[in-house]
VanZ family protein (Streptomyces stephensoniae), 188 residues
Amino acid sequence: MRQGSDGQTVIHFRAVGVTLLLAHLLLVGWLTLRPLDVPWITAANFELLAGIRADLALGPVEATRRIGGALLLLAPLGVLLPMAGGRVFVSSWVSLLRTVTAGALISLAIELGQTGVPGQVVDVDSVLLNTAGVAVAHLLVVPVWRARLRRRGLPGVRDLPRYRQETRLRDEAPGGSTPTITRVGIAP
């Protein structure tokens, strides 16, 4: 990634983030929304935590594979969504809330999309596990990543608040803003 001035580094982070986000969503869509040719299908699960209990009843190896797969499916969104947003100076809690909400909505959209796909089974626990995976990935990577960007002092990141202020001042009239004086009447 090239380091530039005037926020170029942030723009490159955003471009890479958007590209990786789209690639990941295409992969997830292909994995979860393609028709499967299976001899039989279990019923849809709308009871909270019933799918996780059923996975745990299959034994530790199969439970780890199924639950871990659901946790890891959308986990990259925990990093890619903030990266695509390109915000470095944002509250950690706000970022977590935005990312987890977006991850939950994407997971819900996938589950709703599976209702019309042959061979795919809707499971409410998948939404919970996918959202938890997004939250864990975000908490493990994003705060450290943002702190490192701030600490490294990249030109596009360190100077971003000052750059925005300079841009705002530059966009005003060439001589500055028009002064206003109280108690001066308007000429006829």
